[in-house]
Each structure stands twice: as C-alpha cells, then as structure tokens.
Write a structure and sequence with these properties.
It is elongated and about 70 Å long. The protein folds into 2 domains: 10-73, Winged helix-like DNA-binding domain superfamily/Winged helix DNA-binding domain (Arc Repressor Mutant, subunit A), CATH 1.10.10; 80-239, Chorismate lyase-like (Chorismate lyase), CATH 3.40.1410.10. Helix 1 (10-23) packs across helix 3 and helix 2 crosses helix 3 (47-59). The model has no long low-confidence stretch (mean pLDDT 91). Helix content is 27%, strand content 33%. The chain has a 6-stranded antiparallel beta sheet. A two-stranded antiparallel ribbon has the order 1-2. With 241 residues, it is an alpha+beta fold. This is GntR family transcriptional regulator. It comes from Bacillus salitolerans. Keywords: DNA-binding, Transcription, Transcription regulation. Residues 8-76 form the HTH gntR-type domain.
Amino acid sequence: MTKLREEPLQHLEIAEYLIHNIRSSVYEVNQKIPSENELCRQFNVNRHVVRQAIARLTNLGWVTPLQGKGCYVNHIPKPILYVLSSHTRFSENMESQGVQHKSKLLNWTKGLPTSLEKEQLTLEENEEVYRLEILRFIDEKPISITTTVFPESEVPNLDMHFSDFQSLYGILLEHYQLRPIRSSSTFQASLPMMKDAELLEIPESIPVVQIESIMNHPSGYPIEFSVARVRGDMHKCLVEF
C-alpha cells in the first residue's frame, strides 16, 4: 500500500505516479493501466479520488478511457525542437530535422490595425495591415496557430498569392524579395482559448506557449508582428544567439 498525503492532493500524487510509470514504460502504449479498484486498494483511497486522478491523465492526453474496458495509454509524440534565431523559418526548421510539415491559411483580413499592432509596427495613422491566421502541422498533427500582421504598404496585393498557400515566407521571398529578420520574441505560458484548443486538438487543460515576435525589414524597421500559440506538449524551443 502506498502512503499518500491528505486530500485534496491525493489525486495529484496518484496521477504523477501513473505518469511516471508511463514515461518509464512500466505501462506501454496501448496497454491498460490498473483499474479503479486496483488503484483504490493500492493507495487506500476512495473511488472519487482515483477518478479525479484518471480524469487528470485523460485531460493531459496520457490515457484514453474506453467504456467498460478501462483506460489505455496513448502514444505521446516527442516534442519537436524549434530553433529561434534572427532568420528562423518554420519550414526550414522542420526540413532540417526531416519532419513532415505543412501550413494552412485559416483566414485573412485587410484593415486598420489594433492599438497593439500599430504600436509594435510603428504605423502611421490610418495605415492598413494584412492580418493572417495560420495553422501549422507536424506529421499531420496541428502544432501551432499564428496570427501575423504586415503593413499593407510593404506587401501590396498580398491576398493575390493565397490561392495555393503553402508557406508565408515562401510568398514573401518569391513575390516581394523579402526575408524578415527576427528582432525580438517574448514567451508566456497560458491555457488555450476554446477556439485554439479545438484547432490544436487538445483539451483546454493543456498549456500553450505564446510567442510574440517582431520581425524587421533588412533595412532595420519593423515589418511583421506575430503572436504564435504553440502546443506545450509537442514543442521545445532552442534560442540561438
């Protein structure tokens, strides 16, 4: 029998015990974890505590419950290394690791910027912007959603090149001879908004890493402001100086 702390932390300790056993391959992918009854006996707790622990594992994506059959261990993909540097490009990052990837343009608008966008891009009064929402995939799994904003004056008629969208920076390079240079990025962990959780196919309890970035024109002034929301369970970041 395993001794636990007093409630309300008991279910967290049981969840951590199970996660540790999954990580160390005590329970393999597609294998059933111990039943509620077995866990109740092992930890000397009631069924409510065990169900809280299993609900936590389910919400975090470690197991899938099957009605009347128990809970089975999921395949958890290894985090993808994403390198952030002054010249980072998503497609080049993935290709260098031999990872299958693609990007999907969810929607776009052209109009006046928000006050934050105007400030970050040092825009003049009434200067319009293109705003794009891009969903990116790795091995057919969604990994990030990025809202990216450009001054319309820097990329005139950008929407004319969206019909066969594959890579934003591919469009910029081919049609505008433009390769933005990262000047700064800020990171913040948060829980996803409901819409982002649906698009990323994760429960709302899985954290995302929000990355706000400013990209400069080669001449030195800001040309792109982006806010990426990246799945915290599929991503680890390397910042190169």
